Predict the structure.
Amino acid sequence: MTLPTAVSNTPNLDTPSAEPAAAERTLTGEQANGSTDQLAEQLPAPPPTDLYSDEPPLETTLHLRQMILLLNCLHWIWKDRDDYFAAGNLTIYYSLRERKDEDFRGPDFFVVLDTEPHPRKSWTIWEEDGKYPNVIVELLSDSTAETDRDFKKRLYADTFRTPEYFWFNPDPEKQEFAGFALVRGKYEAIAATDQGWLWSEQLQLYLGIHDEQLRYFELDGKLVPTPDEAAITALAEAAAAQEEVTAAQEEVTAAQEEVTAAQEALTSEQQRSARLAEKLRELGIDPDSLD
């Protein structure tokens, strides 16, 4: 709708009368509403206070599967804990002015300790008691590797103060794995074990490559399973235990059969002895005198 022409306070010298007609000076209700609506459309809308995460999608299915793998395995081994929050590709808002239209990043995977695990649309620092992630993992790709190794490493050390930062490229042809711990405000490389694993003091777990994927390992070297792997293992263990029970039952049955056979043989022998003793008595011989 076109805005109505504003009415001037200067007399119109081109018309006989300097006083405009009332119909020309008064806006109808429909015109007034239309003007208000159009002006409202022209004004920028204030940012919402509860934004959903708006991170770009992960580049490949390898990246997506790796992110889900890290989440699922951590949830499995920490299934009895309720003092952490873990997420993937979720926006972190960290503006000092508490604005959600500036200063935000979305790590591929991060963990915050000593917090509640309830679902969130995003992680907003000023709404989370000022907590930043304890651990961040970025999944390298051709388009992000340089930023992950340089800018984000400085951001997570200088601004987030995240105690541990890891990166991993899930592409088997370009696989790269590194980890850093914050020491006196600077990241220092975490020393690898003989297997190439890196210890996370925050998670109390090793991170290492297994079957071309980044996995967790317990202190004793045991692989942290996915829920599906744990279920398969549990089923296999249950089947093995059942086989042992069946084998034991078969042994018990065989032993019982041997006992029954022995009892039957003993009964038969007792019956034969009784018949023989009766015959001896018929012949006038006391069977007891023969002992």
